[in-house]
Amino acid sequence: MTTQVLDYPTQAYINGQWTSTGRTFTITNPATAEKLFEVTDCGAPQAEAALQAALEAQKTWRKVNPFERGRIIAKWAALMHENSEKLARIMTLEMGKPIIETRGEVKYAASFAEWYAEEGKRYAGEMLHMPFDHKRAMVRYDPVGVCYAVTPWNFPAGMVTRKVAPALAAGCVMVLKPAEQSPVTALYLAELWEQAGGPEGTFQVLPSLDPVPVSKPFIDSADCRKITFTGSTEVGRILFTQAAQTLKRISFELGGHAPFIIFPDADLDLAVKEVMLAKYRNAGQTCVCVNRLYVHEDIAEAFTAKLVEKVKTLKVGNPIEQTTSIGPLVEEQGLRKVERHVQDAVEKGATLDFGGESLGGLFYSPTVLSNVTSDMLIMNEETFGPVAAITTFKTTEEAIELANNTPFGLAAYLWTKDIATGFKVSEALEYGIVGVNDGVPSAASPHVPFGGMKFSGVGREGGHWGLMEYLEPKLVSYGLYD
């Protein structure tokens, strides 16, 4: 099909200039297979240029008053709100998230800029007592320095601002490599940063089909002091090893395999409501989506019936339409994985309660499986699709053991009316985020910490924790002599 005429930037943004390389790659609408854009394909030369520009920009940006930095970041947030429909639309076109969800993501993305515009003014040093009468000690916080970020396609605006806003607020400059499936969203955010008065070199965007040549200069250079990455655990482990060669600061948000435990005292209608939020957003393509549903055996049949009833109301369709609740998967590889997980489960004895069908193109029907067992792929791998897998448990201890029986530890959920159960189980779960009677614990909340344990990551984003990821404490000790 022919390319649409869409008013969005498609060139790299390097040192305040929109830059072409003579090479491009194609962005295709996953819902329609229509070609949308030809986007500049960056390589090592552009990465080197961006690194040098960042080093120069860092010298001045770190000295800019935090109140002035905050003013620019706040203007950036305001521009996101002013252009919210345009920003929501490009996310939907690029990666297939329903427009009703991308409008919410615009608010989510802007909230990080709003939060850090203010939080960047609030961090302060400390005066410490010393064991010597003639000494005084002060702790101040300095910017880490030049930072490099790699962001995913599933939250193409929210993941950008969650990394870039705290870095800029702390006095760091940022070079971003956005996901190759959704780079235009990031480029549009760079355009808005430029309109907000963001100085040259403070925020640069390098779209690329191949992340390796673009990332290598930043990984190898000791002058790049931090890498932040959201993506797969496999890639995160590689970056972790590479970053160690120059002892960089890192913050990684990696894969998840979230459990949701439904205790026998649960309000089933409310529990189903929260499971729907935690499972089927973005067609199940988020790292905090529920992968494993552990339902007490006494209520499993009733819970499954209520869940199927709700899942049947989900409308699969073109995500640009207002009434669509489930859009396409982002690419063929993801669709094949979902198909493989469902087929494997059914072949091993799971009950297909609803769905389980490819609907043409990259669309897959919202699905419910029950009688799932621990030997099935869906219980051992992150599905990243609209499939709910239900198994049962007998005791609280068993539920905790099952939920923790994974190398991942990003998000977990549970539903109970008993406050003691809520406290005890949340404390026992080995996860960075736990939702008790809450399927979206970090929604619209830029002030809370987001991150995982074990193979799900290192460091935190959001709140003052996210700001501290970009600051270095420095001890300054004064000897006072007459």
From TrEMBL:
Alphabetized Gene3D superfamilies for the sequence: Aldehyde Dehydrogenase, Chain A, domain 1 (3.40.605.10), Aldehyde Dehydrogenase, Chain A, domain 2 (3.40.309.10)
Coiled coil: none
Superkingdom classification of source: Bacteria
Family, similarity comment: Belongs to the aldehyde dehydrogenase family.
CDD domains from the UniProt entry: ALDH_F5_SSADH_GabD
Cited InterPro entries: Ald_DH/histidinol_DH (IPR016161), Ald_DH_C (IPR016163), Ald_DH_CS_CYS (IPR016160), Ald_DH_N (IPR016162), Aldehyde_DH_dom (IPR015590), Aldehyde_DH_Superfamily (IPR050740)
This protein's record includes keyword Oxidoreductase: yes
Annotated Aldehyde dehydrogenase domain residues: 20-476
Protein name in UniProt: NAD-dependent succinate-semialdehyde dehydrogenase
Recorded GO MF terms: oxidoreductase activity, acting on the aldehyde or oxo group of donors, NAD or NADP as acceptor
Keywords carried by this UniProt record: Oxidoreductase
